[in-house]
Amino acid sequence: MNSCFRKCPACGRDEAQAHLEKGGLKLVRCGHCSMIYANPAPAEFASGQYYENTGLEYYLSPAKLESDYAAVRFERELRVFRRYCSHGTVLDVGCSSGAFLFQLKTHFPGAYEVLGTDVSGPPLDYAESRGIAVLRGNFLEPDFGGKKFDAITFWAVLEHLLEPKRFLERAAAILKPGGFCFALVPNMKSLAARLLGARYRYVYPQHLNYFTRATVTKLVPDPFALVEVRSTHFNPIVLWQDWHRGGEEVSNQDRAELLKRTTAYKQKPLLKPVKKLYGIGERALGVLQLADNLTAVLRRK
Fold first, then answer.
1. Each residue's pLDDT tens digit, 59-79
2. Residue 4: inside a domain, yes or no?
3. Which residues contact 62 (CB under 8 A, 6 or more apart)?
4. Taking a C-beta distance cutoff of 8 angstroms, is the pair 74, 101 a contact?
5. I need a surface site. Which of 87, 207, 256, 268 has the fewest CB within 10 A?
6. What is the CATH number of the domain that holds 117?
């Protein structure tokens, strides 16, 4: 399969200008709306085939699963989610092993009816083994039988998609009026991205789209009103490692082990003072829109 050449995923224009190269990955910036995206998109990531094959060594690794199912995982996502949706039907798109929905049900028993969907079969098998209902296949294709949802989530998903706007349009079509859509994406104007540039580990072939607050706003389709965009998360270990490694590729095993280590830090009682100081620093970066990710909250009109 050949690589896929694309128009801007935010505005649909074909006004790409070279922006950055890293190995065989070429990023361009839209001359009209400034969206940064991979062009051409590497074939196995554009098709989603990677997530059925090579990607499984990360998504189903013991370290990743242990971290995702730890009680402290998804703390930030749950806080913002609960602010807007205290109960109801929830669909998690790109749910992988079902960990977010598991945490939602565990922390707030009886409040939500949950469903996860993904293109990759084995992670969905794992989700089902943990009691999560799943729907298999491309989110743009399944028939939801007229079912409408109170909330739809895209946690670290839109950056992986060839056509992220179509996914948001589909979400709008199956949300109840007044329902909410939540999307978390990497922040291309984060402190880490500004300092590291191409050395940043998350400039890599799995990520087809690279967002800023401005381009997240441009991606939002008309059926939605943008409620807020907040900057969240900060991992100083990633910043330190990538600075010293000079941008060398980080293996899936290393990524999973780092996630396991940082999750373990969060759970150690002796590190509570450090965690408090870290939280202050992260909130300060968030106010300045310099934290690692952007979380957008959209409301169906």
1. 999 999 999 999 999 999 999
2. no
3. none
4. no
5. 268
6. 3.40.50.150
